Amino acid sequence: MRFARLSVLTTSVIVALALAGQVQAGPITYGPTPYLSAADSPFAGGAGLDYFYLEDFEDFALNTPGVTASAGYSTKPAWPASATDSVDGDDGVIDGYGNNGNSWFSSPGPAGVTFTFDAGVLGALPIEAGIVWTDGMDPITFEAYDAYGALIGSISTTGVADPVYTGTTAEDRFFGISYPDGIGKIKLYSGPAGVASGIEMDHLQYGGNTIPAPGAVILAGIGAGVAGWLRRRGII
């Protein structure tokens, strides 16, 4: 009986050790925070990640790897500069206006835009993802989903949008999330249901790791080693 109890105990220890490297922190959301240039991103340009992309739409397209949009199009050349609300710093000068940059637009605003990530192209789903809301109507909502389509985080806010639609940037806000188990998609939408409106956004950004974290590999190896040692001694 003593050995049976010991076996159960040691097996539990082994499982705990083996899984320790796989235990992940929960999701962390960011925003809404003012955003005038990439320097305002909480992701620090993807420091410590295997890949990181920032799509600023300045080439009039969404063409960074491993992401697709459910709706929308580049504001230019479809729109004149006077109606474009890019991230302020994209034209090289932070001056309160985003007319000379480019952004992504969709209508209706309450339907929003969903950006879906492709682990096959990226090597692994991103663990950081975010986007900047640059124009539209209140309320504004950001949502993030895991690889299986389950909601892992959301942010809703109001009192941000102003009545100006000529490229001013004081209202621009960043929304984002980090989640070590992988982000399958993010969605941004705004405006009251039933009201004709659009939504404009910029600086889609996402990054991740294509190999396990070193700590996960080490701890899993320790668990396997302990298991082998106990087996050789007939304990388990």
* CATH homology group of the largest domain: Galactose-binding lectin
How many DSSP helices?
3
Number of strands: 12
What structural class do the secondary elements suggest? alpha+beta
Q: What is the element layout, followed by pairings?
A:
Elements: H1 2-20, E1 28-34, E2 51-55, E3 67-69, E4 73-74, E5 104-106, E6 113-117, H2 119-122, E7 128-135, E8 140-145, E9 151-157, E10 173-178, E11 185-190, E12 199-208, H3 214-232
Antiparallel strand pairs: 1-10, 2-12, 3-6, 4-5, 5-12, 6-11, 7-10, 7-12, 8-9, 8-11
Protein architecture, described:
There is one protein chain. The chain has helices spanning 2-20, 119-122, 214-232; strands at 28-34, 51-55, 67-69, 73-74, 104-106, 113-117, 128-135, 140-145, 151-157, 173-178, 185-190, 199-208. By secondary structure, it is an alpha+beta fold. A hairpin with a 5-residue loop joins strand 8 and strand 9. The longest helix has 19 residues, at 2-20. The model is unreliable at 1-22 and 215-220 (pLDDT under 50).
What descriptors fit this protein?
236 residues, alpha+beta, Jelly Rolls, 2 domains, seven-stranded antiparallel β-sheet, five-stranded antiparallel β-sheet, 12 strands, 18% helix, 29% strand, disordered N terminus
